[in-house]
Design goal:
alpha+beta
Length: 159
């Protein structure tokens, strides 16, 4: 069975990696399972949606400067990506420690960008990739895990 990219398009049964031809600073590579790129309409919003997540593992002795990340890096990233076609939103999660149970979160932080399609994300991300990825060293020494997901169900309460 053939895998990978055929005629410039990902095959649904293929796994492939992209780097976009840019220096990503901490040597992370966007690894994509192409079958996630077959989008189904989201039932709540009536549109397709994907989630591109940067997930920062809670490694022993790691450094993550939330002040810089939340006040400098994310505003810059949101400014660059939010005006792009297909941008639907962004969320950031901070891992917490439960002292009473001596439980650490597996991840220090997770950032989720929501786009109508992976192609829309790439069109928004690649022109600013060098700038955004070059800024990573200012807030962390963690190599992020990049997760590309299709939103299957999402529901938040409405006021």
């Amino acid at each position: 069975m053939k895998t990978g990219i055929v005629d410039g398009k990902p095959r649904p049964d293929a796994a492939y990696c992209i780097s976009g031809g840019f220096n990503i600073g901490v040597a992370a590579t966007l690894c994509v399972v192409a079958r996630f790129l077959i989008f189904l309409p989201d039932w709540r919003w009536g549109r397709n949606m994907v989630n591109i997540s940067s997930i920062y593992p809670n490694n022993a002795g790691c450094r993550f400067d939330f002040d810089y990340y939340l006040k400098t890096h994310l505003p810059m990233s949101i400014d660059r990506l939010s005006s792009a076609k297909g941008f639907n939103g962004v969320s950031v999660e901070r891992g917490v420690r439960i002292e009473s149970l001596d439980i650490d979160s597996a991840y220090v932080a997770m950032c989720h960008y929501y786009f109508a399609s992976f192609e829309d994300f790439l069109a928004a991300f690649l022109p600013h990739a060098e700038e955004r990825q070059g800024d990573v060293i200012h807030y962390t020494d963690i190599v992020p895990v990049i997760q590309i997901s299709r939103i299957e169900i999402a529901q938040w309460p409405t006021d």
